[in-house]
Amino acid sequence: ERLKSGQVIPVTPPPTSPATLHRLWPEIEKVVKQEVAMAKLGVGESGTGWQLFAEDGEMRMYRREEEVDGMVVDPLKAVHVVKGITGRELCHYFFNPQYRYDWETTLEHMNVLETISEDTLIFHQTHKRIWPASQRDVVFWSHLRRLPNDQDRDGPDIWTVVNNSTEHPDHPANAGKCVRIFLTVCLLCQTRVDPPKAGAPVSRDDITCKITYCSVVNPGGWAPASVLRAVYKREYPKFLKRFTAYVKNQTKDKPIMY
Ligand code: 6CM
């Protein structure tokens, strides 16, 4: 832009991710906005019917019993507060494929079908068979994003990963031995840094992360409701405890990543 004085001010275009050119981008934008808004609502605000089904220390897990065509699709909302790790660290280990076998116990096989950009991937996963149901698989895009912290502008940014089912020509649904499941998952992480003692640098003891994990999984085909609910009741608390312990262990001797 040229001012009257003749001085030229360089105009920097806003940063553009190559993902914004992808066919899935409008859907990714829409779903990420929706899921983040839902995750930010407390269990008291986001409609009635959330029932607490698991509790362990700071961790609380709620579900709403819902069925579609006789299949259990209970929405799940979990909140947890973990000391010593940041939201960025949690999202880093949740998003990146090289760590997934370390913490995802229901996983049999994982494959990245497409790298849309460094923060957006398409995965195919097969999960362990649970008797008496057929084995399940899933194809989903996964998107990692940093969000501004509106509540505390001086505090660290908020980080999120959203996973949402999609289609991919290399893995059509229900073509092999697996039944295709459909999911929407959102991990939202808000970090708080307490002021350290005068003169001391911020250490991991000063950091607390509030985690919200929301998921809706449609099993995609017949699965007995009682078995499915029993599996979720056992597996979700196990996942969140194991995953957060894994991130604590991975990061304990590393510099803090905000
Ligand atoms: O969100 C989680 N993991 C992510 C990375 O893997 C991703 C994948 C979620 C897959 C969720 C599938 C769980 C159910 C698998 C068994 C289905 C059996 C149906 C038949 C039963 C009778 O979002 C953590 C997921 C934690 C799951 C407990």
Indicate the overall shape: globular
Strand fraction band?
25-35%
Estimated structural class: alpha+beta
Q: Fill in the CATH topology.
A: Alpha-D-Glucose-1,6-Bisphosphate, Chain A, domain 4
Order of helices and strands: HEEEEEHHEEEEEEEH
Number of strands: 12
Identify the quaternary structure here: single chain
How many domains? The number is 1
Hetero ligands = N-((E,2S,3R)-1,3-dihydroxyoctadec-4-EN-2-yl)hexanamide
The major β-sheet equals:
10 strands, mixed
Q: Please report the distance between the alpha carbons of the first and last residues.
A: 35 Å
Question: Roughly how much helix do the residues carry, as a percent range?
Answer: 10-25%
**Radius of gyration from the alpha-carbon trace, in angstroms:** 20 Å
Q: Identify the CATH homologous superfamily.
A: START domain
- CATH architecture label: 2-Layer Sandwich
In a nutshell, what does this entry contain?
The protein is an alpha+beta fold and 258 residues long.
Please render the helix and strand layout as text.
Layout: H1 25-40, E1 51-56, E2 59-63, E3 67-68, E4 71-72, E5 76-83, H2 87-95, H3 100-103, E6 107-117, E7 120-127, E8 136-147, E9 158-165, E10 179-180, E11 182-193, E12 207-218, H4 225-251
Parallel strand pairs: 8-10
Antiparallel strand pairs: 1-2, 2-5, 3-4, 5-12, 6-7, 7-8, 8-9, 9-11, 11-12
Helix pairs in contact: 2-4
N-((E,2S,3R)-1,3-dihydroxyoctadec-4-EN-2-yl)hexanamide binds next to strand 7, strand 8, strand 11 and helix 4.
